[in-house]
Amino acid sequence: MKTKILPIEDINAQFEYMNLIRAENDGFAMENGFRKGAFVMTFGCQQNEADSEKIAGMAQNMGYEIVDTPEKAYLIVVNTCAIREHAELKALSIIGQYKHIKQKNPNLVIAVCGCMVTQEHRVNDIKFKYPYVDFVFSTAAIHKLPELLFKKVSKGKRLYCNDEEYSVAEGLPIRRESNYRAWVSIMYGCNNFCTYCIVPYVRGRERSRRKEEIIAEVRGLVADGYKDITLLGQNVNSYGKDMGFDYDFADLLDELAEIEGDYILHFMTSHPKDATKKLVDVIAKHKTIAKQFHLPLQSGSDSILKKMNRHYQMDKYLDIVDYMKTKIPDIVITSDIIVGFPGETEEDFEGTLEALRRIRYDMIYSFIYSPRKGTPAAEMPDQVPNNVQSERFNRLLALQNDIAYEINQKHMGQTIRVLCDGPSKNNPEVLCGRTEGNKIVLFNGSVENTGNFVNIKITKCETFALVGEIVD
Ligand code: 5AD
Ligand code: SF4
Known about the structure:
binds 5'-deoxyadenosine; 3 domains
């Protein structure tokens, strides 16, 4: 299927709605001496963060001031996630709390979008249990926010926009959260249908952005002084496959990394079945590409990998990991692991622990399997009881913590380049930053380092953070 690039007329139509709302909001600001606020609440992955930056960009373009608390808002957009039940429950709980804000400000418009409400049963939940939500829109309809808002405000009826035609929308305004770290989506959707995962059902099939658009965006970011740029896609390794020409993700990364400037490129996520040695070679070749690879394993058992429909077995996975470690000895490798997938036996789980011992990840994101309505795994027999899942989860964490602690000791005494993020959230007395492998580093220094690279000599290595001092 050929990717549909949204026609420019469709984007222009949204700009016309933005102008109409802007005129109204400018009038409000003249009369009242302040601008209406818009608050965007985001759950879930970086893709959602990136979508929310477009939502905030459109809101700003419509004459709203982006505010940091829902109480100050005249427009609230909740961008939801559906990856695990917990994410949905959190979103529903927040939406529940906004009822009180709406009671105080009846002019408040509340919209809910994203993966959770791209499922029919959740749209019905909102319809019937959250009557004060004004409109709902699916992931395919993010660009339609101005139109929906205009129709809601002018006609007053509740709206449910469940567009299913997925396209690539270029040219929307983006309001970036940071002025030194940026997300750049290079593709959307997923074709893989891992049996536990809801993503293909709520984000549609894979579609790539044109490389010219991506290169121009990254060039612009580097020129604007952005230091850390993360290329996003559910499976960046299938970039370009829907475009019908001979140009893959390794080619794109190779071309982007040639851009002159003081920055570092990250990318996520890679599916192991599509990770190529060519890509590893490109990473090894460029200083501007972080020596980091996020390669979700999910399980260390071949039989579970099969049930997960992952299309690789341990030998293939280990082959690419070994190649990475040989080509790039200081590479940081991270992973996602699911514990307690249906049918997972003690022996299967032991396979996952063994994989951790063999691969020695710097860090993992671990999850207890959460059944997702409509996915094949939710219907599989032998669902693992909660107590067994939790017990395995704790064993996994204990092992990984030991490994991460041991790995981190190698940084003792090293001088590492770190991108400073400003005062640490846990202890504002110290600064916090990240290495190119995304490890957290704590150090003393001036807040003015925020957004800049600093060299840090490491004096202490813990499981989740390194500690050090600034050197010239
Ligand atoms: N249950 C638990 N974890 C899940 N993930 C995806 N779907 C589920 C689910 N149903 C995890 C996978 C994926 C990460 C983003 O979330 O590990 O890589
Ligand atoms: Fe979900 Fe698998 Fe696609 Fe990742 S590759 S988004 S885990 S279906």
